[in-house]
Structure formats: structure tokens, C-alpha cells
Amino acid sequence: MNPDRVLVEAVLARRAGAFERLVADHQGLCWHIIQRLVRHPEDTRELCQETFLRVHQYLHQYRYESALKSWIGRVAYAVALRHLEKRRVPLEETGRDDADEDPLLQESDGFDLESAWADAQLREQLQAAIEALAPLPRMLLTLYHLDELSIPEIVQISGLPAGTIKSHLFRSRLRLRELLQTRFGVSA
Fold first, then answer.
1. Is the pLDDT at 160 greater than 90, yes or no?
2. Which has more confidence, 161 or 126?
């Protein structure tokens, strides 16, 4: 039987420890999504609690159409977006967003984020460059490259079209390369 189904049914049946296991299994993803969008530990903690409260309240509506982690990630994403909207924080840098269908934006730009992250000397500079990105591109970039989620998983979490995600990833990698070269003299 599907492990997601077993866990959800256990939570819905109010079995001892089931909801705690659900939280333990998915709190890392929830934290990453929210923290990368809001960047404030206190807010992140509260928003993670709100996310799991919503998960508990609406778990009966989960239909197994996607992985449980994607459904919970979507809830975390929605909670974080509402928080940012209330604070009027722009999600993206201004720029054209109609580039989703441009095939050039969907090709690799040669920047290897994973390798740069693994290099101890670049890690601090790369983290600063990632933090300089707007919330949405920062979250998409880190979910894809650092958490190693697939484009379809990120589509399920964010609700954004795959082309939009690919476009954000391409532009974010270019922006990181530019930031690393201009701020830190690092050639990527």
C-alpha cells in the first residue's frame, strides 16, 4: 500500500503518534519553502505551525493525486505567500515574465550551482548571492538545486507552469553568476 495513504489514514483515524510522524517527515520541506520566501526565523516558525495546523484541518481533502510532500509543500507555499502579501513584499524582481516560451531560457547556462555549493570557499559567497535574490526566484532555485526537487514537484508545490519555473531558474542562475562575479570576483 502507498506509504502516503497509510500515513494519511492513520492521521485521519487519530492513531497515536501519526500526526507527529507526518510533521517529522515533512517539516524540513515546510521550513525550507517558508524560510526561503520570508527569511525571518520567528515568522518561519509561526508560519510552519500555521501550515501544519492547516494540514491537520484539511487533510481529509487530500485526494492522493500528488505526493503528500507536494500537497504539504503547496500548503506551506500558500501560507508564506499570504504572509508576504500582507507585508507587501514583492515576490520577484521586475522584469518580463512572458519569456516562459523562449527556448533559449530553457537551456542550461553552464552554471553548476551544486558544484559551487560544494566548494567550501564559495559557499558563503554563494549563500549571500542567493539571499540577494527576490523571494520567489530564491525559493524555486533552492528547491530545484539544493533540495533536488523535480520541476513537476515544484509545479505541484507552487502552482506555477513548468515554463515559468524553468525561466526563473535560468534567470536566477544568470543573476547568481553576475552577483558572484561583480561582488566577489568569483568566476563561475
1. yes
2. 161
Residue 16's region, left for phi above 0, alpha for psi from -120 to 50, else beta, is beta
Domain ranges for the chain: 3-86, 98-184
CATH 1.10.1740.10 fits 3-86, yes or no: yes
Instruction: Indicate the pLDDT class of residue 187, thresholds 50, 70 and 90.
Output: low
* pTM, 2 dp: 0.75
Helices of type H across the chain = 3-12, 18-38, 41-58, 68-86, 113-118, 120-131, 135-145, 151-158, 162-184
**Distance between CA atoms of residues 107 and 151, nearest Å:** 14
Length of the chain: 188
